[in-house]
Amino acid sequence: MSLRQGIRSHYTGITSQSRSGALAAGPGVAMLPRHGGKVMGRVTTLMIIDDHDAVRRALESRLRQIPGIEVVGCTGSREEGIHQALLLRPDVVLLETKRSDGAGLEICRRIARGAPETAVIVLTSYEDEQERHQAFLAGARRYVLKDIDSAQLLREIQVAQAVRSAA
Questions:
Q1: What is the pLDDT of residue 2?
Q2: Superfamily of domain 3-166
Q3: Gap between the Cα atoms of 17 and 34, Å rounded
Q4: Where are the domains of the chain?
Q5: Quick one: which of 108, 133, 131 has its CA closest to 118?
Q6: Closest to 119 measured CA to CA, from 111, 127, 107, 131
Q7: How does pLDDT run across 42-96, given as a tens digit for each residue?
Q8: Averaged over 23-30, what is the pLDDT?
Q9: 76 contacts 47 by C-beta, under 8 angstroms
Q10: 15-20: which pairs have CB atoms within 8 A and are 24 or more residues apart?
Q11: pTM
């Protein structure tokens, strides 16, 4: 199932994720409880910054179903996203750069500069070659479209971490 399909089914309330109640809280950052123990090796900590509430909630819900992924923060706010990413220093930040405030690349730049050990993955609605180039210059490790399925997204997260480790 792609993220877009997940969002559509999330709205209708028919996904197992929405029935499980594993949704982020309302506006601002949802500091999510850490689950106990590690699942098959090292847990990858992850934060989501996307100003579209439904997308953010559906993505967080889907990621919580993947063993070895721990969502530690989820926000639509630019300043809260930057603050929490620099404070929590997750392994990966999933960032939508096409934001209503136009600050997506600035968020990427500030996180990459302030927490170089955090791999920023741009997860966006549609491809824009100029933005893609600017995102890599700003410090993004990967640039992927939101219609990616969960298995492909997990591979992108692993690649971004490998790139980070090699740096």
A1: 53
A2: Response regulator (3.40.50.2300)
A3: 17
A4: 3-166
A5: 108
A6: 111
A7: 899 999 999 999 989 999 999 999 999 999 999 999 999 999 999 999 999 999 9
A8: 34
A9: no
A10: 15/58, 15/61, 16/65, 17/58, 17/61, 17/62, 17/64, 17/65, 18/61, 20/61
A11: 0.74
Is residue 42 within 8 A of residue 36, CB to CB? The reply is no
| pLDDT for residue 3 is more than 60 | no
Beta carbons of 68 and 36 less than 8 angstroms apart: no
In one letter, which amino acid is 71? V
Residue whose tokens read 């992108």 = 156
- CA pseudo-torsion sign 155, 158, 160, 166: negative
2's tokens: 């792609």
Report in angstroms the alpha-carbon separations of 143 from 71, 125, 137, 156.
19, 11, 12, 9
* Lowest-pLDDT choice from 10-14, 70-74, 124-128, 145-149: 10-14
| Among 133, 153, 8, 21, residue whose Cα is nearest residue 92 | 153
